[in-house]
Amino acid sequence: MAEQGEEDREYRRLEDCEEDSPPGEEEEEQLLLHVTEGPTDSWHHVKDLDISLTPPHIYQFHQRNGFACVLLSDVLELVQFLFVVTFSTFLLCCVDYDVLFATRPLNHSHVPERAKVTLPDAVLPAPQCARRLRGSGWLLFLLVLAGAVWLCRLVTALRRLVGYWEIRSFYIRALGIPAEELCNHSWQSVQARLLALQRRQPLCVPRRELTELDIHHRILRFRNYTVAMVNKSLLPVRFRLPLLGPVVFLTRGLQFNLELLLFRGPAALFQNTWSLRPQVKRAGARRALARGL
């Protein structure tokens, strides 16, 4: 009977599930994954549990209030970028500031000399504006660069939207939360359904049961590392200024560069979203890695 039951089931070997194991467990295990019959979804038995738990996925989808809000936000960001570039170009090339600030009298309209200058009086005709634009090489270069940045942002937004659409299906079909009811569910409620789904139909086969702490660790992993490095004075964010004393300086730009350097760049400490690179774990190589960094 046992042999017959084994024949009715299909087993596959899960090779990469050790990426989700907690730090410190280095031994390899051979895990057998039971594949149920019938249609399977893309979120069943994933190799890397971080795929479903870090932005732009379940947590960010909930924090951004669903697919419609995400789509509207991304579209408005792209439109905002185009508006800023277009309006800046207009201000640089299509406005006669001598006329606008009344340092030169109007020479293209029949108004008295002391009449009030209006905005249309200071706007150059379209042909003259185009000539000024073509005559400025550095401005053309900046426009080409801005166009390339906008295209990159467009591609990134489209890729994000594809991922968010899959997470929308995950919320509806796996967690049982319709799109119109997402705003009524707290993150604790979503997390409880996620843990229940893991117990009922595993997302992955980890070495221990998925808990709230596991989810929090995956969502806040890089932030926790950053906080720890600040607490240990490893990041240069505290300075002592004359008369003002100690101050903390951490702008968004500096934070982005630190995250790119430490967590997301080609020389980052992590080889993926969970495990550190083997070189970092070796004490003898840390001084050389620090010099390279």
TrEMBL record:
Keywords: Autophagy, Lipid transport, Membrane, Transmembrane, Transmembrane helix, Transport. InterPro entries: Autophagy-rel_prot_9 (IPR007241). It holds the Pfam family ATG9. GO terms for cellular component: autophagosome; phagophore assembly site membrane. GO terms for biological process: autophagy of mitochondrion; lipid transport; piecemeal microautophagy of the nucleus; protein localization to phagophore assembly site; reticulophagy. Residues 16-27 have a biased composition (Acidic residues). The chain crosses the membrane at residues 138-158. It is found in: Preautophagosomal structure membrane. Residues 1-27 are annotated as: Disordered. It is a multi-pass membrane protein. Phospholipid scramblase involved in autophagy. Cycles between the preautophagosomal structure/phagophore assembly site (PAS) and the cytoplasmic vesicle pool and supplies membrane for the growing autophagosome. Lipid scramblase activity plays a key role in preautophagosomal structure/phagophore assembly by distributing the phospholipids that arrive through ATG2 from the cytoplasmic to the luminal leaflet of the bilayer, thereby driving autophagosomal membrane expansion. Belongs to the ATG9 family. This is Autophagy-related protein 9. The lineage of its organism: Eukaryota, Metazoa, Chordata, Craniata, Vertebrata.
